Amino acid sequence: MKKVLKIAGITLGVLLILILVLPFAFQGKIEKLVKQEGNKMLNAQFDFSALDISLIRNFPSASITLEDFWLKGAGEFQNDTLIQAGELTAAVNLFSLFGNSGYDISKIIIEDTKVKAIVLENGHPNWDVMKPSADTTDTEETPTESAPIRIKLQKLSIKDLSVSYDDRQGGMYAAINHLNATCSGDFGSERTTVDLSMETPSLTYRTGGIPFLNKARLEADMNVDADFANNKYTLKDNTISLNAIQVNIDGWAAMQKNGIGMDMKLNTNEVGFKELLSLIPAIYAKDFQDLKTDGKASLTAFAKGILGQDQVPQFEVALDVKDGMFRYPSLPAGVENINITANVKNAGGNIDATEITVSPFDFVLAGNPFSLKASVKTPMSDPDLQASAQGTLDLGKVKEVYPLEDMTLNGTIQADMNLAGKLSYIEKEQYDQMKAAGSIRLNNMKLNLQDMPAIDIQRSTFSFSPRYLQLSETTINIGQNDLTVDSRFENYLGYALKGSTLKGNLNISSNHIHVNDFISSDTTTVQVPETHDSTTVSSSEAGVIRIPENIDFTMQANLKEVLFDKMKLETVSGILTVKNGTVDMRNLSFNTMGGSITANGAYSAPKGVQPHLNAGFDMKGIGFAQAYEELGLVQQLAPIFSGLKGNFSGNLKINTPLDEKMSPVMQQVQGSGSLSTKDLSLSDVKFINQVADIVKKPSMKDIQVKDLNLDFEIADGRVTTQPFDLKLGDYTMNLSGSTGLDQTIDYTGKITLPSGGIGSKLGTVDMTIGGTFTSPKVGIDMASLAKNAAEQALKGLVKGNDENGEETKEKESVIDKALNLFKKKK
């Protein structure tokens, strides 16, 4: 018995030693495999901070965990992080680690993960990171060195997953935040039952600028009969909750040669009007449980047929509300007589056969009736639109039916409009075929939000016709800002229905605009782990003024005062042409910094592209000190301006990208220009002070400079000047060189000594200016100065000209001997 116990103890000890030692033995092999396979397959930046192996966590499987994993795009996505995961764990069959037959993965755990999927306007997706597969022949000829990875998944666990999908080409956005889910089943078999449970507090979906879901709560508990052999999936017991709506889906979906076959039906027997209202974010977020409702509601949906590249299944979604109402018990009024009939259907086949109908959408808000009807056919090829709206909305009564917090709202909206016709009528300028008439009027609209400037629209009128949309009688006050707009827009229907170019003419005037009031400073950031770098990826750009690519405007500006950052512009006038994401300035003139500027050039900032400025500025009477105070470009490239008094005129051409604060990216600024001044006052300029000390001329430290002319170029973070003369009293300096972003000075030149006496005979002396603006270093060639002085002194002592007035060889000999003697003594 003792022998048996001894053997069992030894065996147990060996097993424990193996459990502790094996992870370290295989960790290097697994880490090498993961990075090898990743680099082999991916055309992207990929890394993780640590790889851990455990034989205990999912025994008898080995757990392989990647910590702080990230996958970053390449090329046009090099600044976008596609995946960032706090922890990824895979359970691998322990025995598959031995040999080269492959590694079986049975369980995957994903924790604290963010996925950011993007489709650019050009259709390029950021998840296309797989390298092209090698040619089959090459694969056969070159045997792989690594073992294959087989997925025999039995369980997938997700904890705190956030996924966003931003399709900028299709105008669609979807996001799931803080998703928790588990999925189990024998995915290695030909058929299994998949159990799926999931919940997220925030599901968002919008398309075409319309928010269909906004931070809706989603819960699902589903059983799916998965026939992997035939690629058919049948929904069994399932419950899906969206906010207060609870539904289930019956049917199946199967992968077929020509697409995905399906026969599905939405069952919503328990849906009532109150549950439908839960899909409206503003209502669901405000005392929803206490909301009183009445009326009948139904929601049905089905899809049957093939979903393929060029076809859709037969489908229909129908919503019907009869005599609905809702009211908050704490408020004096409600919304009544709500009647909605909405339908989206397609008989199957071409997506262009889809028909959308809303007729009617009627309600009475605090005694004011409003009615809307609309329908769209052939939405893809040539939208055939019919729409009408009649009624009055008294915004001042909204507070009687909805609990407004930190907000006051007043004013009226009066609508009486009718539209009918095809978009092609507008495109072909067949305006007689199109029906468009009516107006929408805003009167005395006032909106006050906490921590926001008050908005006051005294009146505004939108007038419709087939050819144009007229915006007139519009004066808007936002806080201390005022704006009066008179405009006319063409192709407004094409812009609204298909995103085609909106054309127009705008006349804009204002007494006061502070641009900073309209620039958001909010950003949402994703921090890349420290194992990579400290790059921050911003999902919104703070401060960037974007220019839509589908507007074509000619704007006439007449603005009395504009504040931008530290700059104050007065009497702004000129013509701005907005087209293809670019604003062209034509003779845009304004007074600023004590003088005046006229600008010509372009500011380009289409969506998804770094803002860029390429413009020329003609400047007159600009103050040196004011330019330094208000312009970051001057502060970084010409800090000497801070100590100068006086005004300058000239011109500047600049070509530079702009950062998220609309400031030039200094290292990439390219430019040139000229500067002239007639009344420059130099006082306590450090390198001038040093020159004054060297030549023993204290009066040079505070002196007036006349007629300074300077030509310069800006490139690679430095300002390079052509040779220019700087007259300091009786002295003249001729300088050229450069200054940089690092505040360094690299100038060379000559200083001409005063005329009269011996100075007129000494000529010029070489000098250098180095160091920095805060600590300059001035050097004057004293040996050259001494040599000139010796020459002039000896020339005065030795006389001996021939009959033609030329110096004799005897004189030259004496001078040479004297200079040699001077050098020896020096």
Automatic annotation (TrEMBL):
- InterPro entries recorded for this chain? AsmA, AsmA-related
Question: So which domain of life are we looking at?
Answer: Bacteria
Which ranges of the sequence are coiled-coil? none
Annotated AsmA domain residues: 1-269
Q: What is this protein called?
A: AsmA-like C-terminal region-containing protein
Q: Which organism is it from?
A: Bacteroides gallinaceum
